[in-house]
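User: Here's a chain of 319 residues. Predict its fold as tokens.
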Amino acid sequence: MRLRCALLDDYQGVALECADWSALADEVDVVALRDHLTDENELAAVLADFDIVVTLRERVPFPASLLDRLPRLRLLIASGMRNSVIDYAAAEANGVTVCGTESSSAPPVELTWALLLGLARGLVEESAAMRAGGPWQSTVGADLHGRRLGLLGLGKIGSRVAQVGLAFGMRVSAWSQNLTEKRAAEVGVELAPSKEELLAGSDFVSVHLALGDRTRGLLGAAELALLKPTAYLVNTSRAALVDQDALLAALHEGRIAGAGVDVFDIEPLPAAHPLRTAPRLLATPHLGYVSYANYRTYYGQAVENITSFLTGSPLRRLP
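Assistant: Prediction complete.
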């Protein structure tokens, strides 16, 4: 019997173009699914006839309750080498091998700066006015040179965001619970004495932390209240790092100049969700890792993972 492979969340319809799937043609039928499946019953029904599933990032959780309902599943491939929404113990108990792929941090760094620059120079408002025949110049840009960029997190992505900020002539400081002065100095930035000082003293704040028990809800109403009314907040990491209701309130009340957000508690974001119409918000539909280079890596290595699995030597096993 031929094997079947499902490619989840192929929103743009490019998954089959981003890798040479012909290497599997003799043994595997590959099916790209463009619609996002959120209901576990629907997922169980749709995936019941697949032996292999390729999932992007953490868009679809695979808890024990779902894995228990997929007796045919034998290989689950996640993009990236870390995935917090797969129950690895349940996968092992069900005889499912879990593999990952490499992933470049360059695209989320670039998107972080796209959001920050878009906010600082009012690009959305000015472009919309140009197209609509509206006012010629209606905003005054917020300068970057000489301003302070505060980074929550100085890991792989945060450190690269810092380097761009330094190139713009910004004063860059960073804070996280485990960040040391030595590490900050290696990147060429200042170590903020506290989270509170970083928030209160920064003109732009960008979040680059992993989500965990210590960081969930790290920026709530009290923390957002520390930001200057002229400050901008950018979050391309995880939605749960920032209290969404508190952020909405700050935007509606004009307590911060604006926010750039690429991550949400619910994805895809429902059409009637209040973040879709919030003022002072530049929002993108979780595009951080969405680039041709990353997609070629994800799907190209997914082909490699499947090929190696079929020969009995799985590559890039997780966790």
